[in-house]
Amino acid sequence: MTVNIEEILKLLPHRYPFLLVDRVLEFDPKEPTVLKALKNVTMNEPFFQGHFPDHPVMPGVLIIEAMAQAAGCLAYLSADAEDQNQLFYLVKVDKARFSQIVTPGDQLIFEVKQKRLMRNMGLYETSASVDGREVASAELLCAAKAKGHDGN
Fold first, then answer.
1. For position 140, which CATH number holds?
2. How many CB atoms lie within 10 A of CB 152?
3. Catalytic residue annotation
């Protein structure tokens, strides 16, 4: 199944300019531990004004954030109905690697695999590719908190 931007806006709390997933390309409710998503990278991204004006490069931390948002989509799509009233926070990044720069005109394809769930946390193996070549990968740990939780 695919998920369009209107549905992603219902899943994720992020909004412009920080929503970094445009579409979920593949999600199978019968195999709820895998997801493929995309982001179209355009020159209109606000971060290109300063990173770098004469040679625009998407910041690596935003690629990690985009992979985390794709993992959030997987978490919400695979959650039970009673778990839909949660926010997922990125709490740990391991094994982050960048192998190629991302520039305007690229289409990032994210692949997310849920490695395991433990209590309120999920461990995800993520990667981003452009034209079939991996540009980044990381292992992400996300924690679920009830919406409206103040952290205390």
1. 3.10.129.10
2. 3
3. 51
